[in-house]
Amino acid sequence: MLLLLLTPAxxxxxxxxxxxxxxGADANRSHAVTSEISPPLGLAWTYRPAQPxxxxxxEPGKELHRIDFDYCFQxxxxxxxxxxxxxxxxxxxxxxxxxxxxxxxxxxGGPVRFAPVLHEGRCYVASDDGVLYCLDxxxxxxxxxxx
Amino acid sequence: MRGFAVAGGRLxxxxxxxxILCFAPQSELAGKPFILAETSKMGKSGEDKVSGPASAIxxxxxxxxxxxxxxxxxxxxERGSAVAxxxxxxxxxxxLVADAVSCDALRANLLSTTAYHGSRIAVLPRxxxxxxxxxxxxxxxADGAMDQAAMAGLYRVLHPYTGRLYIxxxxxxxxxxxxxxxxxxxxxxxxxxxVQISRGALPVGESEARAPFQxxxxxxxxxxxxxxxxxxxxxxxxxxxxxxxxxxxHDVFAFDAFNGRELWSVPVGKACVREADAYAPPPGSxxxxxxxxxxDDVLRLDLGARVFVDLDARDGRVLxxxxxxxxxxxxxxxxxxxxxxxxxxxxxxxxxxxxxxAAGGTVKPGPxxxxxxxxxxxxxxxxxxxxxxxxxS
Lengths: 147, 393
Description:
The structure holds 2 protein chains of 2 kinds.
Chain A: H1 2-6, E1 41-48, E2 76-77, E3 81-85, E4 91-96, E5 102-107, E6 117-119, E7 122-126, E8 132-136, E9 142-146
Antiparallel strand pairs in A: 2-3, 3-4, 4-5, 6-7, 7-8, 8-9
Chain B: E1 3-7, E2 10-14, E3 20-25, E4 34-37, H1 52-63, E5 70-74, H2 81-88, E6 92-97, H3 100-113, E7 121-125, E8 139-143, H4 148-156, E9 164-168, H5 174-180, E10 188-191, E11 194-198, H6 204-207, E12 238-240, E13 243-247, E14 251-256, E15 262-267, E16 291-294, E17 298-302, E18 307-312, E19 318-323, E20 331-333, E21 338-341, E22 353-354, E23 363-365, E24 382-385
Parallel strand pairs in B: 5-6, 5-8, 6-7, 8-9, 21-24
Antiparallel strand pairs in B: 1-2, 2-3, 9-11, 10-11, 12-13, 13-14, 14-15, 16-17, 17-18, 18-19, 20-23, 21-22
Helix pairs in contact in B: 1-2, 4-5
């Protein structure tokens, strides 16, 4: 029963066509989508941060038995914008998927280690400051948050 | 590459450097790839840009070798203490501001003018101070106009033993405010408009373990660096003077007992591995740590093979060795004899000498010493290690 109640609030089992709304594309972390890409591909744009990721734990191989969720800025996308959080400057950013230009940047109070989750026009972000942020995906404006 | 996504017909790749790369079908590409590079602004907040009381505090901390750990800044951000500490020390700085609106404004300002937001400076509203555990802050910078309740709240999180509280700006009733806040240490002027309070050891009632317990910190050294839990004879972690010492598989670590920060580590070869039971290290080599004694200022390791080393508890620096092997340089014994090492709380570097009035065999030249990391050796039949002052043995 609990699962049924929660399911509508989570991304569907399969990601909507053309989207990658959470880490691994869907709630099953399948890393699979139904949309197509047409090779050959070429580099369209690159985002370079001022500071590299700052993982909570040492690199895999140097340390065992740690999950490796924050060794890069995990991107998600609604097909128009690319969203990712930073464990270095504590910000969430939205870039234009086509051009790579920055649309907005939202600072939180701690490192952002997990990929954002997109759902119905909102961008949900968990920060190490203990706050779950709910942002308007298009503007980056903060909506009521919870701790 | 450490992460990827596919959306809108494009492939996104994320690297360990924090780059996001977008790949598109050739038919959609036009011209050179666009590069959005967020340049570091660290230079704009370099040391040459920092001045005033905040800079003086940072200089004092550098002089006293207290540049690591956590700093809490509870004065107006316009005074620049957070940026000064970030620029001139390695402290992780937490700036408290009045409310959420002030938070947003300061975060935006730090992002646009420095590269410190996040990795070096976190900004939180003042009412979040209650979320932080007792004693975590190595340094606190407070406004002189604070009332006794605010001052008591800050003192709650000030680190014992080495914690520093700096009060900046006019404070006409400072003595009475401190007294009312339960702060008994003396406030000492250290710079123009800055007074310093150094917190010492906790009083007896506070230093004892008090239930119920809850987790204060967690983290290193981690399973890969830690000694095998099956080694039942491994030296147990020990604490002294606000520090915790742990023997790992190949290193000895020191942690801040109150906030878990790793203070230093010293490689000691096979410090604590299972093979050490059957391993016969050559005399004088630093390959095992079979015993450990923690003191206020010194950590003494028994490295096995009758070799001891004293480390500076503050930074792990080697103070001196005691090598009790019989094939040490210069001499061998042909009979029993008693020697002494005149140790002290400060490193003496002195070799063992025959005890005055002690009878025993004669001493004659021996073979050359083996080449190794041990810098100082002596020869003994029986040895008394004496450390005066703050005894650790």
